[in-house]
Amino acid sequence: MDVSRNISGTFGHPFVADGTIYEHQLNYWSPTNTAAEYPRLTLKNNGSINNTKNSTLWIRDADYIRLKTAQVYYNLPESLFTGTKILRGVQFYLSGYNLLTWDKLKIRDPEWDAGTFPVMRNVSIGCTIKI
């Protein structure tokens, strides 16, 4: 059996929210919620831009470690194929991409750039037949 893996990560790389309001940010300032964590929601067309104004309020710790790829292979013993004229070997595999991420930033993928699709998780199984 063979195993391979690729682990990646980044540290000291803050994430700056792009002004998008996430569900956890519904704790915004209002006359009835003056102790809110986030500023008052505003519209851009009224001249006020609290939602997207550059501020340290929007900076979050984006350090993460990710199990990027992992593969497990199993080769059937060659002794099973002695005497056969067609088959020389069979290998089974399980492969995964973007499997696990350990991070403090739970609101979005740390590798995702606003305006693009997030990185997808992919798991595949297969068989390689040697003839």
Task: Note the main attributes of this structure.
131 residues, mainly beta, 4-stranded antiparallel beta sheet, two-stranded antiparallel sheet, TonB-dependent receptor SusC
Written account of the structure:
This protein has strands spanning 2-10, 15-16, 59-60, 64-75, 89-103, 122-130. With 131 residues, the chain is mainly beta. The protein has one domain (2-130). The strands form 2 sheets. Strands 1-4-5-6 form a 4-stranded antiparallel β-sheet, with no helix packed on it. Strands 2-3 form a two-stranded antiparallel sheet.
Topology readout:
Elements: E1 2-10, E2 15-16, E3 59-60, E4 64-75, E5 89-103, E6 122-130
Antiparallel strand pairs: 1-4, 2-3, 4-5, 5-6
Protein name: TonB-dependent receptor SusC
Organism: bioreactor metagenome
How many individual helices?
A: 0
Judging from the principal axes of the Cα atoms, what is the shape?
rod-shaped
Per DSSP E runs of 2 or more residues, the count of β-strands stands at 6
Strand content: 35-45%
Q: In the residues, how many domains can be counted? A: 1
Global structural class = mainly beta
- The ordered string of helix (H) and strand (E) elements is EEEEEE
Mean pLDDT: 78
- What about the largest sheet? 4 strands, antiparallel
Give the neighbour order of strands across the main sheet. 1-4-5-6
